Amino acid sequence: MNYADLFRVTLPETMLEIAALLVLIVDLGFLRKAALKTRVTVAALLGVAGCGAALWALQLSAGAGFTFDGNLLLAQGGYVAAAQSGILILTALTLLLFIDSDFTRNTGEYVAVVLMAALGGLLVAAAQDLLVIFIGLELLSLGLYILTAFAKSSGKSAEAAMKYYLFGGMSAAFLLFGFSYFYGLSGSTNLLRIQEAIAESGPSPLFYMAWILVVAGLGFKVAAVPFHLWAPDTYEGAPAPAAAFIASVSKVASFALLLTLSMNWLMPSIYGSSAKSAFEVFLRQYYQTWPQLATILLVVAAASMIVGNLAALAQVSVRRLLAYSAIAHAGYMLLGVATQRAYSGQGSPFEFFLSTTGPAFRSANAVLFYVLTYGLTTIGAFGVVAVVERATGSDRLDSFLGLHKRNPLLAAVLLVFFLSLAGIPPLVGFWAKFNLFAAVLGVSAGPVPFALVALAVALSVVSLYYYLQVLKRAYVMPAIDETPIKAHPATLTVLVLIAAAVVVLGCFPALLQGWIQSFYPIL
Predict the structure, then answer these.
(1) Mind listing the pLDDT tens digit for each residue in 53-90?
(2) Of 78, 116, 430, 450, which is most buried by a Cβ count within 10 Å?
(3) If you average pLDDT over residues 430-438, what whole number do you get?
(4) Phi/psi at 74 (nearest 5 deg)?
(5) Residue 147 contacts by C-beta under 8 Å, 6 or more apart in sequence?
(6) In the Cβ-directed half-sphere of 516, how many Cα atoms lie within 13 Å?
(7) CB 433 within 8 A of CB 281
(8) Which of 309, 159, 169, 321 is nearest to 234 (CA)?
(9) 180 CB contacts (<8 Å, ≥6 apart)?
(10) For residue 161, what pLDDT is reported?
(11) φ, ψ dihedrals at 73, nearest 5°
(12) Cα-based distances in Å from 115 to 347, 348, 395
């Protein structure tokens, strides 16, 4: 094992570890008797600095990944680097929203747990081996359980954390059971070796059972139906910055992993010209199994879109509304994951799959575009909810009555975030859905993809109704209490910047698309 290569590849994770230790040392060693606001601000800014250092390290560590005994363990570049960069940026934004919080006096511990959970997300996004995937998922999940329970004075927070932990433990068991089947079928924990072994021997009932178990485990992570029951209670009970972190960073890491499971053997850095012929044979064999695997994901995607959107109509809590909205958005994104393969058998599959502008990468890029913009918008939405909740003591719909009079700027950014989540042009949420649906139709011809996209478009119209219910109270219905709602300058600045990014990326979507594609090597 080359430890120098391992250190280079894991330099971003190392930066987050150092930042977490530094936060604990400064908070517990030097600011123990300082005012709570001072401790919160210093801890959050140190965490943001750690994310910045990790982003810088991500650029320095660019390479071919880390291999052990000829097997790739951690990948770099492509969608992996884009997802890792997104995780770090979204983590920094959630830490900035923490500056105005007072739900805990353990500020150093909170920021340290956030950074360690983000570290787990980075590992999940880059992992190419079952053991590394499981370690990364557990590190991420344990951090999320702790963050959910961090408001010690809140009974809802404790209840949500317990439910989240119990469902999470069950999902981890499903995932590990599926991984054990894959290992038994192939004799390896490396994703590429597993797929090669299955392609040689052909799919078996045990293979499909293993895939179903893995989908169940990862379905919990992305809050997909029927593995979504934890999400409404967790989004409602967790502290607002923690809920924003769960809704954004966890989603990005989990969907990066789903892309990895379906694309890991397609990384350009793995294959040279000498492997071209064997790889073409492998792709032709494996393509026979993909329709069955995709069917499982498509069923979960359709169920998530239907249940998430319809259940959101009945919510009176904005947090729970955002939770069911997250379930619906997970369904949209799963469409992109499930419809990546469209090789018809004509021409060379090697060039088809490794083309950075071809259908295989087009769908992956659309999923990345969607999950990154969704995470950004959701953080902003939770930021507004946190401010209103702190002022009114509730997150119910009626708490937003007359918001445009009580704080016009806060109402304006809420308008931008919710219309973007609904997919209204020219905001970035519209282009996220447009790119995703176009990619699905572009790579998968046939009545089933067309019907699912039509269903997704129809349910997007349904989603506009419940988003407008919140905006109607903010702009149309009269306020019961017209006392001004004040927001911390740092929080308001962050929310305005996020709203500006949502508008700018909506008007110029090529900026984000070009940024994502810049991580891919030129073939």
Answers:
(1) 999 998 887 666 777 777 778 888 778 889 999 999 99
(2) 78
(3) 93
(4) -130, 125
(5) 110, 113, 114, 117, 238, 239, 242, 245, 246
(6) 24
(7) no
(8) 159
(9) none
(10) 93
(11) -100, -45
(12) 46, 44, 27
pLDDT-based confidence at residue 1 (cuts at 50, 70, 90): low
Residue showing tokens 């601000």: 41
- 488 Ramachandran zone, left/alpha/beta (phi>0; psi -120 to 50): beta
Q: Is residue 74 helix, strand or coil? A: strand
CA distance 68 to 33: 48
Res 289 pLDDT > 70: no
Q: Is the pTM of this model over 0.85?
A: yes
Mean pLDDT of 376-393: 94
* Residue keyed to tokens 């994104």: 333
Per 3-state DSSP, the chain is made up of helix, strand and coil in percentages (nearest 5) of: 75, 0, 20
The dihedral through the CA atoms of 54, 57, 59, 63 has a sign that is: negative
Give whole-number Cα distances, 305 to 224, 226, 286, 288, 324, in Å.
9, 11, 29, 27, 9
Q: Residue 28 has what DSSP assignment?
A: I
Specify the residue for token string 């936060």.
23
Is 291's pLDDT higher than 80? no
DSSP string, 301-340: HHHHHHHHHHHHTT--BHHHHHHHHHHHHHHHHHHHHHT-
- How many Å apart are CA 215 and CA 293, to the nearest integer? 10
Q: Is 127 helix (H, G, I), strand (E, B) or coil?
A: strand
Four-residue CA torsion sign, 185, 190, 195, 196: negative
CA pair distance 25, 368, nearest whole angstrom: 36
More confident site: 101 or 470: 470
Structure tokens at 434: 């447009």
The amino acid present at 187, given as its one-letter code, is G
Per-residue model confidence (pLDDT) at position 66: 75
